[in-house]
Structure formats: structure tokens, C-alpha cells
Amino acid sequence: MDEIQHVEAYSWYFCMLFSLSQTAAQLHERIQSSSMDAKLEALKDLANSSRDVTFAQEFINLDGISLLTQMVESGTDFGDLLSFTLTAFVELMDHGIVSWDTFSVAFIKKIAGYVNKSAMDTAVLQRSLAILESMVLNSQDLYQKVAQEITIGQLIPHLQGTDQDIQTYTIAVINALFLKAPEEKRQVGYTHTPSIPAHTQISPKPINDEMAHQLYVLQVLTFNLLEDRMMTKMDPQDQAQRDIIFELRRIAFDVECEPNNSGSIEKRKSMYTRDYKKLGFINHVNPAVDFTQIPPGMLALDNMLYFARHHQDAYIRIVLENSSREDKHECPFGRSSIELTKMLCEILKVGELPSENCHDFHPMFFTHDRSFEEFFCICIQLLNKTWKEMRATSEDFNKVMQVVREQIMRALTQKPNSLDQLKSRLQNLSYTEILKIRQSERMNQEDFQSRPILELREKIQPEIMELIKQQRLNRLCDGTCFRKISSRRRQDKFWYCRLSPNHKVLHYGDLEESPQGEVPHDSLQDKLPVADIKSVVTGKDCPHMKEKGALKQNKVGLQTGSGYMCVSYMKYCVWTDGLNALLGKEMTSDFTKSDMDTLLSMEMKLRLLDLENIQIPEAPPPIPKEPSNYDFVYDCN
């Protein structure tokens, strides 16, 4: 029997191969048709079929790749014909059957030409960029040829459009060119102008000035310059770098650098130490030491200075606001800036090699020449705002940073198109909102929908429902005073009802005035055995709403707002639930549903607590003593 099955399996496999071989041969012939319509349909079919590796092998065996490259080199096809030709080519090459080193310079020039054209069909441009990226990544020889045909300057216009796919593919090509470029061409250094210590310039090392400027504009996209600064330690002895810290102090406190002969050295040191402490540096004596840690290195100092110069009012407000608080409640600007810069580099993966598995794309970084610095400025203000909302102390620093990371990540997942949109979305993600989102997500986690959890919920529900039932019956036993409405709509009497402790009799009667406490059973002359109650009706179904003489009948009816008895909605729910519980019927009020959700949620959380290695006391904790006075209670009057 097994042999027969093997024979059938092999027969089916060979039939499939024969079918794919036939299809490949037919498409090979059809894409050479003289009819444009027939050729277009054939190329569409080829693009779809080429995703299958077995078909791709059959088509490549027919020298199909060479045929496609010849069609591209001829330059006779355009529009959809060219688009589907390139799509089929990309799909076939993705299987790794054919080496990229086999393509001619003419083919590379043609593909590069499509990228360099100012107006090109979007689909053709996208496929061309994908081909160039693969060429560069898969062959060092092709990198040299592609680099001769494509420059960064020719790629930049594609980043200025609105098509995110084109922008993404363009960035991929730029990253590929940097990855394959020789080390000396990838290095771009930084120098500081001594006369203006705050200004950071790009100094090409051997890249020309135009190329360096283009790289500066693209610093967030390629992250190469950011990575250099992030991995550059501050030299505490470098006067130009120390001048940047002096500049931060000058802007914050509006002080000029004192001459060396002004006051004693100890007095100046004390003054500097005091100001550096207010600026929130960890090392108050020599803040330069704070920037020796990499990452974030000098990048953090660059961001701080950019914020101080371009958002001066916000910078001064944050520094002075925090320096006026108690030490433990101040949000240290220096330490926060360093940790925030490090966090932003981690979020944006600065310093990491490009990954094909990462599809994060943030169009807001195309809207500003200094987008990373502006991103930092928005986030440092967010950090200060969150610190205040959390009423944090110095011990809560890491906790605040975790919340800020979550706020930033959640805002970025919405893919804001501009930095203003990012700022707006971060404003809506307050600490309170983050807590609400966390709570909602915990309740909606897949774990809470798993079979064991659902079974636990089903097991607990009857217990919770019994608890609610007992609470309702206890309320009936306590009794309730209702305001009685006469036929003339006058509220001149009261009506009291309570359930007997054995749950068998309802005691009720009229009262002249509202009682201050419970009314004893003995003073309620009328009785209604629970066994005589057939059903509980409410609203328009009540007999007293239909019959004038119904008030004389021995029936219980409840109506909110008007009718036989005026009662609050909460009392209405308690009594309808209690009476239904006495009759063994389901309690369906809104209060029952709300109580069930609340109690079930609490019970689930308690039962799912991870109590491993946690010692639970056998006795409950003692009740604290009453306070000496109650002056802290707010007087509503």
C-alpha cells in the first residue's frame, strides 16, 4: 500500500513539474509577442508566477533572465510594460538562483537612468530602487558601478515627495551605499569653531562640500553623523567643549563669564558648582565628566545646546522651575537630557546596521533640517511635564523614563506626518492616559482570552452572582422608605417595606414621616408572604398603570420617578434584583451587571497574582488608630 502511495505522489510531482515547465515555456513565448496588449497580459502573469521558486527555476532555465534584461536595455517598453517587466525581474532574482555579478554595465545604466529621471512612473521607480539596492548589497563589483551612476544628490529629490514607499526604498539605497562604501569614504568628522563653541560643523574627510551638506540634511535618515557624535566622548580638558557647558549656564542664568581676577577662586568654584547643580548635572564640580559615557557621548550635549539656543524660553523655564523645587522633587535637566538622548537613539536604532526585517518609517523626519534635535526638544519638554504629573522624586527617575519611553513609542506608532503632529499626540498621552491604556490592555490581553482564563471566569461567576444576591437580600432585610404618590400626584405620605430575616415575609405599612432609622417589623402591620408573589412587574406592565382599582389589590409594583412609589434608580435596581432573587429568577438590572464586572475583574486579578516567594501573613494587618482630629476632612458647606 505504501509503495502505491509513493508512486502516486511521484506521479503528481512530475505532473506538476511538467505543468510548470509548460507554463514557463508559454510565458517565455508570450512576452515576446508583437501585440502590446498580449505582451502586457503575459508580463502580468509572469510577475505573479515568478513568486513560486519552482516556476522561477523553470523560467530561468529557459534563459528568461537574459530575455528580461534585453527587453529593459532595448528601451522600447515603458509604463505598465516596463513596470511588470521589472517586477518579474525582482521576483525572479529574490530566489537567489542567479548571481547578481552577471549583469552588464548597460543594464545598470538603464536602471540608474530610471532613478535619475525627474519624472518617472512610480511603480518603475520603486522597482528600480529595489534593484539598485540588491545590486549594491550583493556584489562589491556592482557597488562600484552603481556608485558611478548614482549620487546622494540624485536620490534626495525622491525623499522630498509624498510617496512613503519611494522614500523607504530611497533610504534603503542610501543605507546600502554607505554599508558597502570603503571606510575612508564613510567617515565624516566634526569640528567646533573656537569662536562660536556652540556651532557644530561638518568637516568632510574626503567627501566634497556638497556631499557633506547633503549628508547633514539626511543625518536622521542615515544616522551616520548621529552615530559619530553618540560614540564620541567628551574630553574634560578640551576648552572648546567646556565652552559649550559655559554657554548653557550663561543662557539659563543670564550671567557672563567672569574674568579670572573677579573674586577668589574658591568663590567662583562655589558659584559654578551651585549653577551646575541647578542645571541638573550629576557631577556638579566638572559636568564634562557626565558626557564621557558612550552612548550618548557628545550627542547629548549637542541636543542640550540646540534646545537652549532655539527654544530659549522653554529651556530657561524648565531649568528655573526645577531649581526652585526641593532637591528630591526637581527634574534634573542635565541627567534627563543625557538619558533621553540615549533613549531616542535606542528607539530610532541609531548605530545599528539597517535591517530588512525593520519596516519602521517616520515621515516627520523629512519636515525639518534638524529633525533629530527638534525631536529631542519636544521630548525633553514632555519628560518635564510627565515628571510633574507623576509628582516624581529623584528615586522615581527610572520610572519616569519608562513612562516617557512608552509615551514616545505610542506616539510614533501613529506615524505622525510632522513634528507638530507628534507634539500634539504626545500632549494627549498624559500620565493619566497612559495608566488608563495600560489597564485596558491588561484586560484585553490574549492571556485573558485563553481557554484556562475563560474556564476560571466561568467557575468564579456563580460565586460572584451568589455574593451579589446575598447583598441584595440583605438590603431588603434592612428595609427601605419610599415616598408614596397619591392619585392627585401629591407626595404626602411615606411607605416602608422590609424583608423578614428568614426571607419568607415582606412587612410593609404607611408612615406619616420619613424614619430616621430602621422601622421594626412589629410596627409594620401589613404582611405579604413571599410564596404569594407570582411575579415582579415594572414600568408600564404594572397593573396600577392600567387599572384605577389596582391600588386596592394585594400586589407590589415599582416605578421610577412616577407611579405607585417614587424611588431612586439605585433603590429600584436593588429591590427588583432582590425580589427576583426571592423568586429564583435572574437578576437583570444595570447595577447587577456593573457589580458583576467589577467584582469579577478584582477576583480574577487576585487569583492570577504571582505570589511566588511572597509570604502572605496569616492575620490581617492591624487597623490604624484614629487620628487626633478630623480637620483634614473637607467641609462641603
UniProtKB/TrEMBL annotation:
Keywords: Apoptosis, Phagocytosis, SH3-binding
Keyword Secreted: no
Residue ranges annotated for the ELMO domain, each copy included: 240-412
Pfam families registered for this protein in UniProt: ELMO_ARM, ELMO_CED12, PH_12
One example GO MF annotation: SH3 domain binding
GO biological process: actin filament organization; apoptotic process; cell motility; phagocytosis
Gene Ontology CC: guanyl-nucleotide exchange factor complex; plasma membrane
Biological role: Involved in cytoskeletal rearrangements required for phagocytosis of apoptotic cells and cell motility. Acts in association with DOCK1 and CRK. Was initially proposed to be required in complex with DOCK1 to activate Rac Rho small GTPases. May enhance the guanine nucleotide exchange factor (GEF) activity of DOCK1.
Identification of the protein by name: ELMO domain-containing protein
Annotated organism of origin: Esox lucius (Northern pike)
Underlying gene: ELMO1
